[in-house]
Amino acid sequence: MPDSKFWRITEPILLGTLANYFVNYIFSSGDPGFSITEWVVAVILCIIITEINRVTEAHLEVKLGWTRSPSKRLFHNLAYLSLSLLFVVNVIGNLYLIAKGDTFYELNEMLIINAVTFCLILILTTFRWAAQFYFNWRQVENSLVTANAEYQNLALSISTSQDAIALRKNRKQQLVKLDQLRVAISRHGFTKVVDADCENFIYDESLSSLMDLLPEHFFFQLTRNIIVHRERIVSITPDAHGKIAVEFLDENDKVAKAVVSRLKASSFRKWYKRSLTRNT
Protein backbone atom coordinates (compact mmCIF):
# COMPACT_ATOMS: atom_id res chain seq x y z
CA MET A 1 0.00 0.00 0.00
CA PRO A 2 1.43 3.43 -0.97
CA ASP A 3 2.49 5.82 1.82
CA SER A 4 2.49 2.96 4.35
CA LYS A 5 4.84 4.91 6.65
CA PHE A 6 2.49 7.88 6.58
CA TRP A 7 -0.51 5.69 7.38
CA ARG A 8 1.46 3.90 10.12
CA ILE A 9 1.93 7.24 11.87
CA THR A 10 -1.50 8.67 11.05
CA GLU A 11 -3.60 5.66 12.07
CA PRO A 12 -2.80 5.61 15.84
CA ILE A 13 -3.04 9.41 16.06
CA LEU A 14 -6.43 9.40 14.34
CA LEU A 15 -7.63 6.42 16.37
CA GLY A 16 -6.47 7.92 19.67
CA THR A 17 -8.02 11.29 18.86
CA LEU A 18 -11.39 9.81 17.92
CA ALA A 19 -11.46 7.37 20.83
CA ASN A 20 -10.58 10.12 23.30
CA TYR A 21 -13.25 12.41 21.86
CA PHE A 22 -16.10 9.87 21.76
CA VAL A 23 -15.35 8.43 25.21
CA ASN A 24 -15.28 11.94 26.73
CA TYR A 25 -18.42 12.80 24.80
CA ILE A 26 -20.28 9.83 26.28
CA PHE A 27 -18.96 10.28 29.81
CA SER A 28 -19.50 14.08 29.79
CA SER A 29 -23.09 13.93 28.52
CA GLY A 30 -22.41 15.62 25.20
CA ASP A 31 -19.88 18.16 26.43
CA PRO A 32 -16.44 16.61 25.78
CA GLY A 33 -13.53 18.48 27.21
CA PHE A 34 -9.96 18.21 26.07
CA SER A 35 -6.98 17.14 28.13
CA ILE A 36 -3.61 16.98 26.42
CA THR A 37 -2.50 14.33 28.91
CA GLU A 38 -5.47 12.06 28.19
CA TRP A 39 -5.00 12.57 24.45
CA VAL A 40 -1.29 11.64 24.60
CA VAL A 41 -2.09 8.53 26.67
CA ALA A 42 -4.85 7.53 24.22
CA VAL A 43 -2.48 7.95 21.26
CA ILE A 44 0.25 5.90 22.98
CA LEU A 45 -2.20 3.09 23.74
CA CYS A 46 -3.42 3.19 20.14
CA ILE A 47 0.16 3.00 18.87
CA ILE A 48 0.55 -0.26 20.80
CA ILE A 49 -2.77 -1.56 19.42
CA THR A 50 -2.05 -0.69 15.79
CA GLU A 51 1.49 -2.10 15.94
CA ILE A 52 0.24 -5.38 17.41
CA ASN A 53 -2.43 -5.43 14.71
CA ARG A 54 0.19 -4.78 12.02
CA VAL A 55 2.46 -7.59 13.25
CA THR A 56 -0.53 -9.93 13.48
CA GLU A 57 -1.60 -9.15 9.91
CA ALA A 58 1.92 -9.74 8.60
CA HIS A 59 1.97 -13.12 10.36
CA LEU A 60 -1.47 -14.08 9.04
CA GLU A 61 -0.55 -12.99 5.51
CA VAL A 62 2.13 -15.70 5.50
CA LYS A 63 0.14 -18.39 7.29
CA LEU A 64 -3.38 -17.64 6.09
CA GLY A 65 -3.65 -15.35 3.07
CA TRP A 66 -6.87 -13.65 2.00
CA THR A 67 -7.01 -15.54 -1.29
CA ARG A 68 -6.71 -18.97 0.34
CA SER A 69 -9.48 -18.64 2.95
CA PRO A 70 -11.09 -15.20 3.30
CA SER A 71 -13.56 -16.23 6.03
CA LYS A 72 -10.87 -17.81 8.24
CA ARG A 73 -8.58 -14.85 7.66
CA LEU A 74 -11.30 -12.40 8.68
CA PHE A 75 -12.16 -14.45 11.78
CA HIS A 76 -8.52 -14.67 12.90
CA ASN A 77 -7.96 -10.98 12.24
CA LEU A 78 -10.96 -9.97 14.35
CA ALA A 79 -10.03 -12.43 17.10
CA TYR A 80 -6.46 -11.16 17.38
CA LEU A 81 -7.70 -7.59 17.17
CA SER A 82 -10.11 -8.17 20.08
CA LEU A 83 -7.44 -9.83 22.20
CA SER A 84 -4.92 -7.06 21.60
CA LEU A 85 -7.56 -4.46 22.40
CA LEU A 86 -8.52 -6.20 25.65
CA PHE A 87 -4.90 -6.46 26.68
CA VAL A 88 -3.90 -2.88 25.89
CA VAL A 89 -7.02 -1.07 27.12
CA ASN A 90 -7.71 -3.15 30.21
CA VAL A 91 -4.26 -4.29 31.33
CA ILE A 92 -1.93 -1.49 30.24
CA GLY A 93 -4.67 1.11 30.74
CA ASN A 94 -5.26 0.02 34.33
CA LEU A 95 -1.52 -0.10 35.01
CA TYR A 96 -1.40 3.53 33.89
CA LEU A 97 -4.23 4.38 36.30
CA ILE A 98 -2.37 2.65 39.14
CA ALA A 99 0.81 4.57 38.34
CA LYS A 100 -1.16 7.79 38.18
CA GLY A 101 -2.94 7.06 41.46
CA ASP A 102 -6.46 7.21 39.98
CA THR A 103 -9.29 4.80 40.73
CA PHE A 104 -10.25 2.07 38.27
CA TYR A 105 -13.06 2.54 35.81
CA GLU A 106 -16.35 0.88 36.60
CA LEU A 107 -17.47 -2.11 34.53
CA ASN A 108 -19.91 -0.15 32.39
CA GLU A 109 -17.25 2.48 31.72
CA MET A 110 -14.74 -0.20 30.66
CA LEU A 111 -17.33 -1.73 28.36
CA ILE A 112 -17.97 1.64 26.73
CA ILE A 113 -14.25 2.34 26.29
CA ASN A 114 -13.66 -1.11 24.78
CA ALA A 115 -16.69 -0.90 22.51
CA VAL A 116 -15.86 2.60 21.23
CA THR A 117 -12.20 1.74 20.64
CA PHE A 118 -13.06 -1.57 18.96
CA CYS A 119 -15.58 0.05 16.59
CA LEU A 120 -13.17 2.80 15.63
CA ILE A 121 -10.21 0.51 15.04
CA LEU A 122 -12.43 -1.86 13.09
CA ILE A 123 -13.54 1.01 10.84
CA LEU A 124 -9.96 2.17 10.29
CA THR A 125 -8.73 -1.38 9.72
CA THR A 126 -11.53 -2.03 7.21
CA PHE A 127 -10.60 1.17 5.40
CA ARG A 128 -6.96 0.07 5.31
CA TRP A 129 -7.95 -3.38 4.01
CA ALA A 130 -10.10 -1.83 1.31
CA ALA A 131 -7.29 0.49 0.26
CA GLN A 132 -4.82 -2.40 0.26
CA PHE A 133 -7.15 -4.60 -1.82
CA TYR A 134 -7.67 -1.73 -4.25
CA PHE A 135 -3.95 -1.08 -4.74
CA ASN A 136 -3.25 -4.81 -5.04
CA TRP A 137 -5.98 -5.06 -7.66
CA ARG A 138 -4.48 -2.15 -9.57
CA GLN A 139 -1.05 -3.75 -9.46
CA VAL A 140 -2.45 -7.05 -10.72
CA GLU A 141 -4.38 -5.26 -13.45
CA ASN A 142 -1.28 -3.36 -14.54
CA SER A 143 0.72 -6.59 -14.49
CA LEU A 144 -1.93 -8.29 -16.63
CA VAL A 145 -1.90 -5.42 -19.11
CA THR A 146 1.90 -5.60 -19.31
CA ALA A 147 1.84 -9.39 -19.59
CA ASN A 148 -0.83 -9.23 -22.28
CA ALA A 149 1.21 -6.73 -24.28
CA GLU A 150 4.28 -8.95 -23.97
CA TYR A 151 2.19 -11.96 -25.00
CA GLN A 152 0.84 -10.13 -28.05
CA ASN A 153 4.36 -9.12 -29.07
CA LEU A 154 5.58 -12.68 -28.59
CA ALA A 155 2.63 -14.12 -30.50
CA LEU A 156 3.23 -11.63 -33.32
CA SER A 157 6.91 -12.55 -33.36
CA ILE A 158 6.11 -16.26 -33.46
CA SER A 159 3.45 -15.74 -36.10
CA THR A 160 5.84 -13.69 -38.21
CA SER A 161 8.60 -16.23 -37.86
CA GLN A 162 6.24 -19.10 -38.76
CA ASP A 163 4.63 -17.33 -41.75
CA ALA A 164 7.95 -16.75 -43.47
CA ILE A 165 11.24 -18.57 -43.73
CA ALA A 166 14.80 -17.44 -44.44
CA LEU A 167 16.06 -18.86 -47.73
CA ARG A 168 19.28 -18.17 -49.58
CA LYS A 169 19.53 -16.95 -53.13
CA ASN A 170 22.73 -15.66 -54.76
CA ARG A 171 24.45 -15.76 -51.35
CA LYS A 172 21.81 -13.45 -49.85
CA GLN A 173 19.21 -14.35 -47.27
CA GLN A 174 15.60 -13.61 -48.16
CA LEU A 175 12.36 -14.03 -46.28
CA VAL A 176 9.89 -16.08 -48.31
CA LYS A 177 6.33 -16.72 -47.20
CA LEU A 178 5.60 -20.35 -46.46
CA ASP A 179 2.40 -20.32 -48.47
CA GLN A 180 4.47 -19.38 -51.55
CA LEU A 181 6.61 -22.52 -51.41
CA ARG A 182 5.78 -25.41 -53.73
CA VAL A 183 8.58 -27.96 -53.89
CA ALA A 184 11.63 -28.83 -51.78
CA ILE A 185 14.16 -31.37 -52.99
CA SER A 186 17.29 -32.45 -51.16
CA ARG A 187 20.19 -33.41 -53.40
CA HIS A 188 23.95 -33.57 -52.99
CA GLY A 189 23.91 -32.27 -49.42
CA PHE A 190 21.73 -29.18 -49.90
CA THR A 191 18.01 -28.49 -50.15
CA LYS A 192 16.58 -26.67 -53.13
CA VAL A 193 13.25 -24.89 -52.61
CA VAL A 194 10.96 -23.61 -55.36
CA ASP A 195 8.21 -21.03 -54.86
CA ALA A 196 4.99 -20.39 -56.80
CA ASP A 197 6.86 -18.17 -59.29
CA CYS A 198 9.34 -20.98 -59.99
CA GLU A 199 12.17 -19.10 -58.28
CA ASN A 200 14.84 -21.35 -56.81
CA PHE A 201 16.23 -20.94 -53.30
CA ILE A 202 18.53 -22.85 -50.99
CA TYR A 203 17.46 -23.91 -47.50
CA ASP A 204 20.42 -24.36 -45.18
CA GLU A 205 18.77 -26.75 -42.74
CA SER A 206 17.58 -30.33 -43.14
CA LEU A 207 14.51 -31.29 -45.15
CA SER A 208 12.78 -32.67 -42.06
CA SER A 209 13.22 -29.35 -40.22
CA LEU A 210 11.68 -27.57 -43.20
CA MET A 211 8.73 -29.98 -43.11
CA ASP A 212 8.16 -29.07 -39.44
CA LEU A 213 7.63 -25.44 -40.50
CA LEU A 214 5.24 -26.10 -43.38
CA PRO A 215 1.43 -26.36 -42.97
CA GLU A 216 0.71 -30.07 -43.17
CA HIS A 217 -2.63 -29.66 -44.94
CA PHE A 218 -0.79 -28.27 -48.00
CA PHE A 219 2.54 -30.13 -47.94
CA PHE A 220 3.56 -33.77 -47.79
CA GLN A 221 6.98 -35.37 -47.63
CA LEU A 222 6.78 -37.97 -50.37
CA THR A 223 10.24 -39.43 -49.77
CA ARG A 224 13.28 -38.72 -47.65
CA ASN A 225 14.36 -36.01 -50.08
CA ILE A 226 11.14 -34.61 -51.59
CA ILE A 227 8.44 -32.33 -50.15
CA VAL A 228 5.64 -31.28 -52.45
CA HIS A 229 2.70 -28.89 -52.32
CA ARG A 230 -0.76 -30.20 -53.21
CA GLU A 231 -0.90 -27.92 -56.26
CA ARG A 232 2.23 -29.52 -57.77
CA ILE A 233 0.82 -33.04 -57.84
CA VAL A 234 -0.12 -34.09 -61.35
CA SER A 235 -1.37 -37.63 -60.75
CA ILE A 236 -1.26 -40.53 -58.31
CA THR A 237 -1.42 -44.22 -59.23
CA PRO A 238 -1.13 -47.41 -57.20
CA ASP A 239 2.28 -49.06 -57.40
CA ALA A 240 3.62 -52.50 -56.52
CA HIS A 241 3.52 -53.80 -52.93
CA GLY A 242 1.06 -51.20 -51.72
CA LYS A 243 3.18 -48.23 -52.72
CA ILE A 244 1.91 -45.13 -54.52
CA ALA A 245 3.48 -43.52 -57.59
CA VAL A 246 3.16 -39.75 -57.56
CA GLU A 247 3.83 -37.50 -60.54
CA PHE A 248 4.56 -33.89 -59.67
CA LEU A 249 6.15 -30.77 -61.10
CA ASP A 250 9.76 -30.58 -59.93
CA GLU A 251 12.07 -27.60 -59.40
CA ASN A 252 12.36 -27.14 -63.16
CA ASP A 253 8.60 -27.20 -63.60
CA LYS A 254 8.85 -30.56 -65.33
CA VAL A 255 6.91 -33.69 -64.51
CA ALA A 256 8.86 -35.96 -62.18
CA LYS A 257 7.99 -39.16 -60.40
CA ALA A 258 8.32 -40.19 -56.76
CA VAL A 259 7.22 -43.38 -55.04
CA VAL A 260 5.58 -43.18 -51.64
CA SER A 261 6.52 -46.15 -49.48
CA ARG A 262 3.97 -48.70 -48.29
CA LEU A 263 4.35 -47.44 -44.71
CA LYS A 264 3.45 -43.88 -45.71
CA ALA A 265 0.86 -44.79 -48.37
CA SER A 266 -2.12 -44.74 -46.00
CA SER A 267 -1.25 -41.36 -44.47
CA PHE A 268 -0.62 -39.95 -47.99
CA ARG A 269 -4.09 -41.03 -49.17
CA LYS A 270 -5.73 -39.43 -46.12
CA TRP A 271 -3.72 -36.24 -46.58
CA TYR A 272 -4.53 -36.10 -50.30
CA LYS A 273 -8.26 -36.48 -49.65
CA ARG A 274 -8.18 -33.83 -46.94
CA SER A 275 -6.33 -31.42 -49.20
CA LEU A 276 -8.86 -31.99 -51.96
CA THR A 277 -11.68 -31.24 -49.51
CA ARG A 278 -9.97 -28.03 -48.38
CA ASN A 279 -9.41 -26.91 -51.94
CA THR A 280 -13.02 -27.52 -52.89
Descriptive overview:
The chain is of the alpha+beta class. It has 2 domains: 4-157, no CATH class; 170-279, OB fold (Dihydrolipoamide Acetyltransferase, E2P), CATH 2.40.50. It is built from 6 helices and 10 strands. A hairpin with a 5-residue loop joins β9 (244-249) and β10. α3 runs antiparallel to α4. The protein is rod-shaped and about 115 Å long. The model has no long low-confidence stretch (mean pLDDT 83).
Q: C-alpha Rg, in Å?
A: 40 Å
Structural class: alpha+beta
Chain-averaged pLDDT: 83
In percent, how much strand structure appears in the residues?
15-25%
Strand order of the largest sheet: 5-4-3-7-6
Largest sheet: 5 strands, antiparallel
Strand/helix succession? HHHHEEEEEHEEEEEH
> How many strands?
10
Question: Helical segment tally?
Answer: 6
Low-pLDDT segments: none
| Percentage of residues assigned to helices | 55-70%
Question: How are the secondary structure elements laid out?
Answer:
Elements: H1 4-27, H2 36-63, H3 70-100, H4 107-163, E1 164-169, E2 172-177, E3 181-187, E4 190-195, E5 200-203, H5 207-213, E6 219-223, E7 226-229, E8 233-238, E9 244-249, E10 255-260, H6 262-279
Antiparallel strand pairs: 1-2, 3-4, 3-7, 4-5, 6-7, 8-9, 9-10
